[in-house]
Amino acid sequence: MSCFARKELSKILHSIFTDYLPQIFAAGFKYTITLAIISFILGLIIALVTALVRISDKGGGFLIIKAIFRFYVWLFRSTPLLVQLFIVYFGLPYLKIPGLLPNGIKLAPFTAGIITFSLNTGAYASETIRAAIQSVPREQWEAAASIGMNRGKTLRRIILPQALKVSIPPLSNSFIGLVKDTSLAASITIVEMFEVSQQIAAENYQPLIMYSLVALVYALFCSVLSWLQGWLEKASSRHSKESEAEA
Amino acid sequence: MKITKVNKTFGNHQVLKNISLDFPAGKTTVLVGPSGSGKSTILRSLDLLERPESGNFDLDELHIDFSQKIKDADILTVRKKTGMVFQSYNLFPHFTVLQNVTEGPVQVLGKKKADAEAEAKQLLAKVGLADKADFYPETLSGGQAQRVAIARSLAMHPEYILLDEPTSALDPELEMEVLKVLLELAKEKQSLVIVTHNLAFARRVADKIVFVENGEILYDGDAGKFFAQDNDNQRIQDFLNSMSLASLD
Ligand SMILES: Nc1ncnc2c1ncn2[C@@H]1O[C@H](COP(=O)(O)OP(=O)(O)O)[C@@H](O)[C@H]1O
């Protein structure tokens, strides 16, 4: 290797560790992780409410509310996330209703990102939670009913704990998916880590290195999450192992 | 407790045909009859897990007309006064044995946790499972699980315990440990309503026998007479002859 090339390589390596990676990580913690965590928590709350509404057996006026939630889930599951981001960030400012909304809805990029990612996650996760609730045998409802528990208490104490345990693997997958999907936030001017790597690549003409670096950081984040998922799954099935050990 | 003129259909299949029955307090009533005759449906109606289309239900001063919408408060009264034991145990898998027994008293009756636990331990001792309090249901044998289910039901101090084929899923040795508990309860004058295919056990435990066939009551009365060989109902004779009476003798 020529002296020049060696110098060049050590310069790049030096930049990677002192400049590029620190910038990517900073953006990762400031935007990627915060976007993902906040959106996931909000998404889970939306998902739980949606799932409970959709499995409810109430009739009458409640059927309209059920229809609205069904429409919401359909809408977010059948359109691309990128298009949803564009509608919320670039589109809503043009939603002008004279008298009510004369100036449209202008959202800060981060807010638009949180709203879209939360609603998107909520739509998918609601189906996961709904399926998990329905996977709990009907007999569990009956056993709870026979000791006098009402529907709400049965849900809270008997059904949801069992359903959430079943939901851990699919919900973890959703979360990992969400972390990767936050890269789409670059398109609505959020300077998350993919955007940062793009900006650096535009300056140093090293797209291969920059995009590989950011890919590595995504992989690192997701690996940590996979490990957490494994830990959660173990913790939630701990009881069986413990009592076997006692026996 | 009694039901009068109860009708229940699933789809267009009439499962209960204008049935009237009473269940004397302090006694053991056993429902027998061929599979699919409607025994479980009768039992589940007593706990309001099935809702017949018409008929009446009376328990102490509570009166329910099945053709009307049942008030939540009445449902709760019935559920407190009756306890159900299922063929498939239906314990709560995410709770320990002790928590399974205390759940109702704490959450529904509003008992203090410590009091509920003390009583639960007594009940578990009574069904022979004092040492299993901290185990999870999936580590229990079927016979143990069913005895926990009986303790869970007893913890609510129900007037009636309803048992839906409580030993049908069990091997004969495990069946015995459950039947012994039930015989003990019957001796203590706990009101029981039992659906079973075990006629030997029925003969031993029943004060009253109800023979159900095709959604109708063919016999409703004294257990001794039912098993007497001179029973003049040919259907009942055929049924008795078709079942083995040997298993508990
Ligand atoms: N949930 C249900 N839906 C439809 N049919 C049912 C249901 N439960 C019971 N049946 C029918 O009702 C009849 C009586 O059932 P059941 O009361 O379980 O009888 P038994 O306890 O005497 O075996 C059977 O023909 C059964 O198939």
UniProtKB/TrEMBL annotation, chain A:
<dbReference type="GO" id="GO:0043190">
    <property type="term" value="C:ATP-binding cassette (ABC) transporter complex"/>
</dbReference>
<keyword id="KW-1133">Transmembrane helix</keyword>
<dbReference type="InterPro" id="IPR000515">
    <property type="entry name" value="MetI-like"/>
</dbReference>
<dbReference type="GO" id="GO:0015184">
    <property type="term" value="F:L-cystine transmembrane transporter activity"/>
</dbReference>
<feature type="transmembrane region" description="Helical">
    <location>
        <begin position="74"/>
        <end position="95"/>
    </location>
</feature>
<feature type="transmembrane region" description="Helical">
    <location>
        <begin position="208"/>
        <end position="228"/>
    </location>
</feature>
<keyword id="KW-0812">Transmembrane</keyword>
<protein>
    <submittedName>
        <fullName>Glutamine ABC transporter permease protein</fullName>
    </submittedName>
</protein>
<dbReference type="Pfam" id="PF00528">
    <property type="entry name" value="BPD_transp_1"/>
</dbReference>
<keyword id="KW-0472">Membrane</keyword>
<feature type="transmembrane region" description="Helical">
    <location>
        <begin position="107"/>
        <end position="125"/>
    </location>
</feature>
<keyword id="KW-0029">Amino-acid transport</keyword>
<dbReference type="InterPro" id="IPR010065">
    <property type="entry name" value="AA_ABC_transptr_permease_3TM"/>
</dbReference>
<feature type="transmembrane region" description="Helical">
    <location>
        <begin position="31"/>
        <end position="53"/>
    </location>
</feature>
<comment type="similarity">
    <text>Belongs to the binding-protein-dependent transport system permease family.</text>
</comment>
<keyword id="KW-1003">Cell membrane</keyword>
<dbReference type="InterPro" id="IPR043429">
    <property type="entry name" value="ArtM/GltK/GlnP/TcyL/YhdX-like"/>
</dbReference>
<keyword id="KW-0813">Transport</keyword>
<dbReference type="InterPro" id="IPR035906">
    <property type="entry name" value="MetI-like_sf"/>
</dbReference>
<feature type="domain" description="ABC transmembrane type-1">
    <location>
        <begin position="29"/>
        <end position="226"/>
    </location>
</feature>
